[in-house]
Design a protein that fits this description.
- The complex is a heterodimer.
- By secondary structure, chain A is mainly α.
- Chain A has 6 helices and no strands.
- In chain A, helix 2 packs across helix 3.
- The longest helix of chain A has 12 residues.
- In chain B, the strands form 3 sheets. Chain B has a 5-stranded parallel sheet with strand order 3-4-5-6-9. A two-stranded antiparallel sheet of chain B has the order 1-2.
- Chain B is about 45% helix and about 10% strand.
- By secondary structure, chain B is of the alpha/beta class.
- Chain B is built from 12 helices and 9 strands.
- The longest helix of chain B is centred in the middle third of the chain and has 28 residues.
- Classes of the chains: A mainly alpha, B alpha/beta.
Chain lengths: ~100, ~350
């Protein structure tokens, strides 16, 4: 069921920009179109490109915000979320917790 | 003839005219029951187009994709008898299923039983968050029924009501609500403090309007305690059952509310995402069911100020009530709710 929804109507998660649009809904209550426009603006792409896995993989690699197939040296997991929080100008709870426990 | 299904999942064949007529009947049923606007002729045409295509699988047009959130996330693979821990499960959601979000959950999916094992839940959430990029919710059900005998300490309203002990049943519900709020706030606080991106109150209202009240009040308390916490409130049914009969929130009687009314109270309490539900009638056709589902959910999305994610799975949201949802019905419901329902997510 998860896969069928992902293919039928999902944004594509970290394969594209679905996780980023989801974060804007969760943290700022943005409706779908507003969240897509916000993320597209931050990424410097057109809204329609947000679900293009070829374009978005290049963009995610360049911004180091996590990729579906992360290469050696790319930001992964928490490292990527530090960059996501900065890029989207939002607080990510786990990133804040990480900061509070380190340094 | 076009192949479609009944709400019980069985395959049937209908003409294109019959499919459109059933969609119209479903739309009419929704407008009558929930007292909401009908769909336009263009929107009904669009639904008819989706449901008369011969394709096994239907998807949205490029650009019309929406965000997916999930209930019982890390429980579902275990239920398929896959031997897997929850962290690899969440990693699969992220990198194999390409989900937009994921949810960590305990196999005993209610807030009450999580309370005694909260430390273990926090540790696993902390570790999961180190290795994932996508937003991770922690979710469970309010499940008010666990607070009455024999599972809980309060007299069971289901035994009191048939005996005509209305006052006693109402008092039992009122006590159960307080205990449920306490457990939901406790568990959600701990999981938020562990770093969870969001909390999901899933299947809200399953024990009627006292269950809905408990969730609204827990949401309110959590938002006051943690202004940045993100809360998704997913409902259990299209219509809040009146089990108590006199419960109000913000001056509104909770019994009998439909999704477009529920979402306004969820907003008021501080929810960030509302998960509306429209049930399946297993004796009616899937075109009839999708007509009423899209009509109710579109009305909900139109009045909402927060994102609305419809529940679209076994027995809800235009999907047959079976354990193995057929991809023909599931993909059509997914596409119909995105393109005609104008939802923010599923």
């Amino acid at each position: 069921m998860v896969i069928s929804h992902a293919l039928a109507s999902g944004m594509g998660g970290v394969r594209t920009a679905g996780d980023l649009v989801a974060r804007m809904q969760m943290t700022e209550n943005m409706r779908l179109d507003e969240a897509k426009e916000y993320v597209a603006g931050k990424l410097g792409v057109d809204v329609k490109e947000l679900t293009d896995p070829v374009i978005m993989d290049e963009v995610r690699k360049e911004l180091n915000i996590g990729r579906v197939q992360p290469g050696a040296g790319n930001a992964k997991g928490m490292e990527a979320k530090f960059n996501v929080a900065k890029l989207l100008d939002i607080k990510i709870n786990s990133v804040e917790k990480f900061k509070s426990k380190t340094s | 003839m076009v192949q479609t299904r009944l709400g019980d999942g069985s395959t049937i064949e209908m003409t294109e005219e019959e499919i459109r007529a059933d969609i119209e009947r479903g739309v009419e049923d929704a407008t009558d029951r929930a007292n909401i606007d009908s769909l336009s002729e263009d929107e009904i045409d669009r639904l008819a187009d989706i449901y008369t295509r011969p394709n096994k699988f239907v998807s949205v047009e490029t650009g019309n994709e929406l965000v997916l959130t999930f209930d019982e996330g890390s429980v579902k693979l275990k239920r398929l008898a896959v031997s897997i821990g929850r962290i690899p499960d969440l990693q699969l959601y992220e990198r194999a299923f390409c989900s937009d979000t994921a949810e960590m959950a305990h196999i005993d999916y209610s807030y009450k039983p999580i309370k005694p094992i909260i430390a273990e839940e926090q540790i696993e959430m902390e570790q999961a968050l180190l290795t994932t990029v996508l937003p991770v919710f922690y979710g469970a059900m309010p499940n008010l029924s666990l607070y009455s005998q024999p599972d809980g300490s309060f007299p069971n309203p289901a035994e009191l009501l048939p005996k005509g002990k209305i006052k006693e049943a109402q008092e039992a519900y009122e006590g159960m609500v307080e205990h449920a709020i306490s457990d939901m706030v406790f568990v959600a606080s701990k999981m938020y403090e562990a770093g969870a991106d969001g909390i999901n109150f899933d299947t809200t209202g399953s024990a009627g309007e006292p269950d809905f009240l408990a969730t609204l009040r827990a949401t309110e308390i959590l938002k006051e305690k943690y202004p940045d916490i993100s809360i998704e409130m997913g409902m259990s049914g299209e219509f809040v059952l009146g089990m108590h009969g006199e419960i109000e929130y913000d001056g509104v009687n909770l019994a009998g509310l439909y999704p477009h009314e529920q979402v306004k109270l969820a907003e008021k309490a501080g929810a960030d995402i509302f998960g509306g539900v429209v049930n399946i009638n297993s004796s009616e056709t899937i075109p009839w069911n999708i007509g009423r589902t899209v009509t109710m959910m579109k009305a909900c999305a139109e009045v909402a100020n927060i994102p609305v994610h419809a529940n679209v799975g076994m027995g809800v949201g235009g999907v047959p009530i079976v354990e193995t949802p057929p991809v023909d019905s599931l993909s059509r419901a997914s596409a119909a709710l995105a393109e005609v329902g104008k939802l923010d997510g599923l």
